[in-house]
Amino acid sequence: MPIIDPLPISGFKEFLPEEQIVLERMKRIIVKNFELYGFSPLESAAAEREEVLLAKSGENTKLIYGLRLLERSDQDVGDGKDIALRFDLTVPLARYVAQNYGKLAFPFRRYQIQKVWRGERAQKGRFREFYQCDIDVVGDGKLGLLSDAEIPAIIYSIFSEMQLGPFQIRINNRRVLNGLLEYLKIPLSYGDGQSTMNIIDKAEKVGIEKTKGMLVDLAGATNEAADALIEVLTFKASTDETLKWLSAKLYGELFEQGVRELSEVMNVVRVLGVPEESCVIDLGIARGLDYYTGTVYETTLLENPQFGSVCSGGRYDDLASNYIDRKLPGVGISIGLTRLLAALFDNGVVETGPSSPSQVIIFQMDPALRSDYFALAAQLRSSGIKTEVYPEDAKIDKQSKYAVKKKIPYGIYMDQKRKGDGVCTLRDYRADSESTMNFNETLTYLSS
Amino acid sequence: MPIIDPLPISGFKEFLPEEQIVLERMKRIIVKNFELYGFSPLESAAAEREEVLLAKSGENTKLIYGLRLLERSDQDVGDGKDIALRFDLTVPLARYVAQNYGKLAFPFRRYQIQKVWRGERAQKGRFREFYQCDIDVVGDGKLGLLSDAEIPAIIYSIFSEMQLGPFQIRINNRRVLNGLLEYLKIPLSYGDGQSTMNIIDKAEKVGIEKTKGMLVDLAGATNEAADALIEVLTFKASTDETLKWLSAKLYGELFEQGVRELSEVMNVVRVLGVPEESCVIDLGIARGLDYYTGTVYETTLLENPQFGSVCSGGRYDDLASNYIDRKLPGVGISIGLTRLLAALFDNGVVETGPSSPSQVIIFQMDPALRSDYFALAAQLRSSGIKTEVYPEDAKIDKQSKYAVKKKIPYGIYMDQKRKGDGVCTLRDYRADSESTMNFNETLTYLSS
Predict the structure, then answer these.
(1) CATH fold of A17-46+86-346, please?
(2) Local structure of residue B138 (DSSP, 8 states)
(3) CA–CA dist A369, A420 (Å, integer)
(4) Which of A30, A65, B136, B320 could form a disulfide with B67 if both were Cys (CB 3.0 to 4.6 A apart)?
(5) What value does the mean pLDDT take over residues B330-352?
(6) Is there a contact between B65 and A69 if contact means CB atoms under 8 Å apart?
(7) What is the CATH number of domain B360-447?
């Protein structure tokens, strides 16, 4: 008798095999493109020392899962008490780079595709365990703008290959915004340390009127300053027009540096072959985090803007000063893959297919031919064709139902008569058709 | 000033990029072969409910890491208190199959490559966080022997492709051993429930004399019974001779069933093309776990037997009766990849190579040619060549040192003169040679 009801844990998303296959395909596209740009794989430990996490956790502190042994009797296990699960991949990157500083080549380019854990209330689209797919380029002391410019090209490659419909990478530079706030004498923070950047970040969502109200009432901007800021945030034009318009504005040194950086980044983005309509300047992009200092990125699926940004990031000046006495500036992005895939399924943007990677299944029609079935399977596999042999003697109906349930595209039937004739029957489940051919023809057909 | 010393956590192994690249290569070989045999990918949540783990944890109970929020103030986060990290991939498989029983096609074939956590004392070759790479075929009610026979073929494909030197898959059947104990009236357990199978399991390590002593003194075997058992455990001959020798023994029904199963499995293994010298019957293989009931497997690297078994598993009758009122027999194996790779590095069986996947790096020789460098990079990448552009203006010496440190195989130099001639210089770092060629030749050369 079963003793435990196998309930799911809310927020710890698990996929069915047919969903997991889609996830794996997306991961492979992401990895392929990260590697095409020369990023090295990295996996960090699931756990960090609590003090490492707490040094950079900010408002995530309350979401951190600590680890402790269920039974404390084994006194030999020492550091179980002060370690906790990572809540992102940036803190582990910072700690890893600091720890291995002497062994790494800088600029350090790494990709990292791992799960992170956040003990918050699980709800639609918000998980407690989820994948982040990150790349970062980390410089030692300094890092030029060319790395900022490659990032949109990588995002473009990945989202093109994923075929999730039209998308747009939106780029801004925090110096443009910070310079503007400085010039307009709008404080960077207000109240008990809330960031004005968060008001800007939410402007698109809440609308102009409400944003202006918050800038004036909360952040203490004058009416004129709020209007001037909103004029910039909402400016929409082509890249060249936007850069020309910005260049004509005399909003001080920081602002102008931001404009120059934006211009240089957009130039290289163009050289890298990213089409203009897929990568635009959006002066309203702020990214809430204080951490960012230069270029910032968001990515929107144009037919599903309600997903929010599906790939975001930016440039930062200081990755790891909590852990090492070095200035390590960098630039990076993150794709929240679990959340993205769940949204794609929920909205019918992506459909599931087979629940098995098998391209073909060989049916057991006659126990006397078992060796032939397995020999044929071995031959198919040696040509790289993913093959399973139905693993038991069973009625052919049952075997066929199994193939249909898993949506395996092809099935091979062979009995004594066919074997004598040197042929087998290949069933195409999607076309609902069958054809009889010899083994070499079958191999060629399935390889094509 | 840094405030936290970025120390590693003992037992939570992290690799350097050049090591991680080897790990990724091994994972890809494993995944490729699992999929060639039609196993579907599965990832389970890192955490399980404590009661799910405790129902099947046995002696692992004391190693389980529980999760709790560092700050308990957020009362909305409910089930943080009763969840814990998985310590293997079998318990999650059992719970997953029970939970999704109605949605899965049986026999259910899944592979799962994920980390598991065990809070034990970390020591050489024993980690607190490590990869397991598992496959299982799970039947609904019953599962034929053909699945047992495919397993050695999969192990053979994987370890051949990994090129870790000669290896041997060693196969036995628990019914042979259990039948023999029954026939010889040697109790299956002794003392406070210790398993006689553990004495058998350790026989190769401790030697015949000591094993006999334990069988007689601890397990209560007669001298004659111990001798008869040891005769079987230590019998070494070819597969055919072993099966013939076993068939002549009249040790009762259970024993004879075990011999028939072993015979059938070995026949199909041969059909699947596994060479005789790579897959042998070893009647001394027991696998300690009570869980196994039929075929059992171990895999030894013949030049590094001190690693122990690098891929083990077996047949079981009851996967999930703790969670579902169904008999779900299955067969599976596991590769402990973190432990294996660490041992391979430590023993010099595998060497690290580049710390980057980049096949080529394009150097920045002249800022005026930046567009050309990026355009060339884009062209190389569109041919699938992993390419990085040195991301900053820097002295060419510094750029070259970076390429050498990362062991990137090729570098491309282009300046105004070369550009005018329509050529670039390709440096081969491994051959320590350079040649000048046009872009198409470069592309062809790097693609080959």
Answers:
(1) BirA Bifunctional Protein; domain 2 (3.30.930)
(2) E
(3) 11
(4) A65
(5) 97
(6) yes
(7) 3.40.50.800
